[in-house]
Amino acid sequence: MAVAPTSYDILMGTFRSPYLYTLTFDVLARKLQVREVNEATGGHNWLDVSPDGNTLYATVWGEPPKLTSYDIVRGGEYATTKLSRNVASQYMSGYVCSNNKAMYSACGPQVDTFLVDDNGTLLDQPAVQSFNLLQGQEKNKANGTLDFGGLRHGGHSADLSPDGTKLYVADIGRNCVWMYHVDRETGLLTEASKNIATRPHDGPRHAWPHPNGRIVYSLQEHSSYVDAFRLTDDNKLEFLEGGCIIPDEKDHDKYWADEVRLSPMADVVFGSTRGLEEGTPGFVTAWNLRPDGTFASTEATHRFQTKTSGGWANAIAVCPNLGPNGEVFMTLTDSEVGFIQILAYTSDKGFEVVDELKISTEKEHIMPATTVWL
Known about the structure:
- The protein has about 375 residues and is an all-beta fold.
- It has a single domain, classed as Methylamine Dehydrogenase, Chain H (7 Propeller), CATH 2.130.10.10.
- It has one helix and 28 strands.
- Strands 3-2-1-28 form a four-stranded antiparallel beta sheet, with no helix packed on it. Strands 4-5-6-7 form a four-stranded antiparallel beta sheet, with no helix packed on it.
- Its EC number is 5.5.1.1.
- Pfam families: Lactonase (PF10282).
- Belongs to the cycloisomerase 2 family.
């Protein structure tokens, strides 16, 4: 059983502020603190760490659209970041992931492939592949104004299968999850299938694979469901079952789901949702899983009501190892007020807030977005 170290470095981006935060979480003291505020090229709403752990990739919310790679500098008391390269993007990206050949970007109207060098740095060149996700008259709207609106109504995420041979792209606007085959020698993609969501109003936002490679969890932004799909023939996804993040009595139209992630042992799946307006708290929900990745029950094992709506965030990122008492640690970011929490979860006791840090100041409203654990 994997056991957490005594402390972790965590990197955190924001939606609008040019800062990258280095945080440390002391597992035994159960304490989270800011160690460094690194200079950033803009607001980084999504972060990804290269497979070797030496490069940070980031989306940039700003004009002109671009993507960024940073060197992760280690050797001191805590990790810091150093800019390695900016590259232009046709549209503002919402999500990136990487292997040792390429970085993949979901940016609303399309999915892009950017190549990286042997050190993981983005090459100083445009995307080598772009897959248009728009259909019919939608293509006429695909111009420079499709920034945040494009992300809200288009391709929103990109994640690789555990063996690195497939890329899953959740597309809110097309109500589907696209599958691409990955050439591991070159990093290039080939479109494989378009997998329509179960409900006409689902709006897939993120698609996260189980370590066994056969199950993919699709987070539905509009309906607040976490759905399990099975990879059927290496080309298509088949719906199995789903659980709702919010309680039955809540109005789905007042929420927009944000994130889906697994516990370190892949025996629990977590989903989070935000309130559409201030005064509507969001939820983080957990379901126990069978060893094959299917739901033990689609009824929630535990729910946690968040302190605020979460703003644009209420994003969870799970610690890669269990805590000393078998607990699952995760970060929860809030952009409404501007704080980050560490949550601990066990299937027996549910969720608890371990620590909280206010990031916003009286002089500046800072909007925490997402984190990565190092």
